[in-house]
């Protein structure tokens, strides 16, 4: 399996990466130098403010956790609580839109790292690659079933489960599941490669991925588990998780951008959100490469222990009224 996972690291763009990093770094520091200390906005008497420091912190949290099986939604919600960004309904709405839109940085990171596979999927759309066509169909089917469920019950989940306590519970439960599966060797029992994924497999993954609408569960974790369940190797399951995340995040970002993009710019301007986006891009690249390398050397178990630890910590913060 080590050799297979090592191949995953090599699936990346042929673009001059050093030049892109230099360009991204230059843009980031340019915005740091030219943007104001923060962005403030008054709405119905409430002051909504996002400082550059807060934008960087949120960008780091988004980029580092989006593709790891630890739930970026849960981390962002708790981070917002710790930074005091959820004190009013107006500020909570603006920050939630901001958090979704900086996902664009994580989207670009996967495009950057997995361009060869994405190009194969484009070739499949154009009839030039049978494997690319099968992978593209599987990704679209899995996304379609999850999206349909999300549109049906998404608001119910948002109204009832978007809180620190449900997130902490999901963190701990997911951590226990990962530890049990890892210690029974469940992740090492399957060997099917990505090109062997059927549309029936994709339906199962899409249905199971809907569980991740419970914040704290982690879309990445549940997708990897579902993909291994239908027979994919861990390496292929991780890659499918990245590809499915790409289209899922793109759809969510586009939807949120159309719904609240103008208000987001009116609230925070352009410079501060772009700082968060660039930070999320760099952090996501580091996170994805680290995850693949770690799985190659150590396995999945560390994510289980991390989830349990952060879940216990979240309950402790609730018990001490540090967060509400």
Please outline the major beta sheet.
2 strands, antiparallel
Q: What's the end-to-end separation, in Å? A: 44 Å
- Our count of helices gives 14
Number of domain units: 1
- The strand order across the widest sheet is 1-2
Give a quick set of tags describing it.
324 residues, disordered N terminus, two-stranded antiparallel ribbon, 14 helices, 4% strand
Structural commentary:
- The longest helix has 35 residues, at 234-268.
- A two-stranded antiparallel sheet has the order 1-2.
- 75% of the residues lie in helices and 4% in strands.
- The protein contains 14 helices and 2 strands, in the order ααββαααααααααααα.
- Helix 6 (103-113) packs across helix 13 (271-297), helix 7 (115-125) packs across helix 8 (130-161) and helix 8 (130-161) runs parallel beside helix 10.
- It has 324 residues and is mainly α.
- The N and C termini lie far apart (44 Å).
How is the topology of this model organized?
Layout: H1 2-9, H2 17-34, E1 38-43, E2 46-51, H3 52-65, H4 72-83, H5 89-101, H6 103-113, H7 115-125, H8 130-161, H9 164-183, H10 199-209, H11 219-229, H12 234-268, H13 271-297, H14 301-319
Antiparallel strand pairs: 1-2
Helix pairs in contact: 1-13, 2-13, 3-4, 3-13, 5-12, 6-12, 6-13, 7-8, 8-10, 8-12, 9-14, 10-11, 11-12, 12-13
Quick description:
This protein is mostly helical. It is built from 14 helices and two strands.
């Amino acid at each position: 399996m080590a050799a297979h996972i090592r191949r995953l690291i090599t699936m990346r763009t042929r673009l001059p990466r050093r030049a892109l990093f230099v360009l991204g770094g230059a843009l980031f520091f340019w915005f740091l130098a030219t943007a104001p200390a923060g962005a403030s906005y008054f709405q119905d008497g409430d002051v909504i403010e996002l400082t550059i420091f807060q934008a960087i912190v949120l960008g780091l949290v988004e980029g580092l956790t989006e593709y790891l099986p630890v739930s970026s939604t849960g981390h962002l919600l708790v981070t917002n609580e710790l930074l005091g960004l959820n004190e009013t309904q107006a500020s909570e709405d603006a920050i939630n839109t901001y958090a979704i839109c900086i996902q664009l940085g994580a989207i670009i990171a996967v495009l950057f790292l997995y361009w060869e596979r994405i190009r194969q999927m484009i070739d499949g759309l154009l009839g030039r690659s049978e494997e690319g066509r099968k992978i593209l169909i599987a990704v679209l089917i899995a996304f379609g079933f999850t999206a349909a469920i999300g549109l049906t019950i998404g608001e119910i989940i948002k109204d009832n489960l978007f809180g620190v306590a449900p997130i902490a519970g999901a963190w701990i439960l997911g951590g226990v599941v990962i530890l049990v599966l890892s210690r029974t060797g469940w992740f090492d029992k399957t060997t099917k490669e990505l090109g062997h994924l059927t549309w029936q497999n994709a339906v199962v993954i899409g249905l199971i991925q809907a569980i991740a609408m419970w914040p704290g569960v982690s879309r990445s974790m549940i997708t990897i588990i579902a993909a291994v369940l239908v027979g994919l190797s861990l390496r292929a399951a991780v890659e499918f998780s990245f590809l499915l995340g790409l289209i899922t995040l793109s759809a969510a970002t586009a939807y949120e951008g159309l719904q609240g993009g103008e208000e987001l710019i009116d609230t925070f301007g352009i410079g501060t959100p772009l700082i968060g986006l660039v930070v999320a891009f760099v952090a996501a690249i580091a996170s994805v490469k680290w995850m693949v390398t770690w799985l190659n050397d150590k396995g999945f178990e560390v994510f289980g222990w991390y989830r349990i630890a952060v879940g216990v910590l979240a309950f402790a913060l609730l018990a001490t009224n540090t967060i509400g």
